[in-house]
Fold this protein.
Amino acid sequence: MAQVSMTVNGKAASGDVEGRTLLSSFLRDTLELTGTHVGCDTSQCGACVVHVNGEAVKACTMLAAEAAGAEVTTIEAMANADGSLSTIQQAFQDHHGLQCGFCTPGMVMSAAALLKDNPTPTETEIREYLEGNICRCTGYHNIVKAIMAASGQDVSSIAAE
Amino acid sequence: MYDFDVEMPTSVAEAVAALSQEDAQALGGGQTLIPTLKQRLASPSVLVSLNGIAEMKGVCIGEDGQLCVGGATSHAVVAKDAAAHFAGLAELASHIGDPAVRNRGTIGGSLANNDPSACYPAAALGSGATIVTNARSIAADDFFQGMFTTALDEGEIITEVRFPIPQAANYQKFLQPASRFALVGVFVAKFADGVRVAVTGASNDGVFRWTEAETALGSDFSAGAVDGLTVSGDDMISDLHGTGAYRAHLVGVMTKRAVAAAG
Ligand SMILES: Cc1cc2nc3c(=O)[nH]c(=O)nc-3n(C[C@H](O)[C@H](O)[C@H](O)COP(=O)(O)OP(=O)(O)OC[C@H]3O[C@@H](n4cnc5c(N)ncnc54)[C@H](O)[C@@H]3O)c2cc1C
Ligand code: FES
Ligand code: FES
């Protein structure tokens, strides 16, 4: 066991971890931030995407020890300060971008990473960016639409809801 | 996963010293190694992370005009920072896996792993790169020694990869959509003194050069020059995604597409 310290959602966080402790386990089990989901645990599904120093990473495929000193942001920090939904989260609700919601934390974190680098992505760019985020419910269409809408673009030409 | 200790050296020298411990193993981006450890297919006692070593990160142009990529440079950084110098390589990096994989996965990890369906081995072999380690420089032609096998010794780490910059180059990846690796990928590079063609995803021996196509393209760099050339499917990977014959056919198709796209 070794002590690891990092900044999670703007606050100092530390805990004892084994070498093999994954960042996803540290967030969920030690810090009890269970918004980060673990779907596959094999770096395929993207449900566990968080930001480490501003970059989207799969928390199930990074060791907690490697995040020492890093700034980590999880879905728990995405809402506005007053608790209302962020623009991306609100767009997911408005455009039915979720059904069971299991993939949603990863989808929102990936969407936020995309929009940071590319504020008005095309539909193709959104679909390509979400290549590592799997959703078993929605068929992706409304997720793409929600992200388009969150970026302030007109989504009336994107058909079905 | 079996448990292990994690060390985070900040220099190549420290990393090499740490790797001399019994059952120590290098950790790059972990995008291959962590899933492997979860399956208990490896049981190192110490993982030596290469991610805190500044001298192993980034892209630059060397004095000899070659593109140098630090061994611990992520795919995302290569996609961005190599674009102005070697667009074919940057393009390849920008299509490895997905964005989160590209933010962690490194060129050194990819080459050291030598997955028979990985993209970077095709770029390294196809452009005649030099793989620089803590101990020596290895030509790509000597580095890849069959599926998941390389010339690296125990504890040896890839510190840098040096790419001669071709006049034109392109990589065409026929996506295996479930794994996001290449079902077949072909890297074509045209230099003043000839053309190199490297194929990944197809052979049971891992990445290889298609020398017949290199000769044909050397005298006529056009997709038509590859017409009539075939590779045998006998020693090719056959799995539920495609037979050896199918992959052999794709080698020709992807080579033509790469030549056409390289221009
Ligand atoms: C969902 C998914 C999709 C992927 N798609 C693709 C794809 O399309 N194309 C593709 O090419 N790859 C793909 N990959 C693999 C990815 O590129 C990995 O990042 C890469 O194969 C391994 O690099 P790494 O830095 O993560 O290495 P690690 O997983 O950390 O290590 C892999 C091996 O290399 C060794 N090693 C690491 N760094 C060094 C070094 N500098 N010197 C010597 N040895 C070292 C380790 O000891 C280990 O044996 C994918 C991976 C995932 C999870
Ligand atoms: S839980 Fe991490 S990618 Fe699926
Ligand atoms: S909403 Fe159910 S997995 Fe995406």
In short: Residues A 38-41, 43-48, 58, 60 surround FE2/S2 (inorganic) cluster (ligand 2) (CB under 6 Å). The mean pLDDT of chain B is 97. The first strand of chain B starts at residue 5 and ends at 7. The two ends of chain B are 48 Å apart (CA to CA).
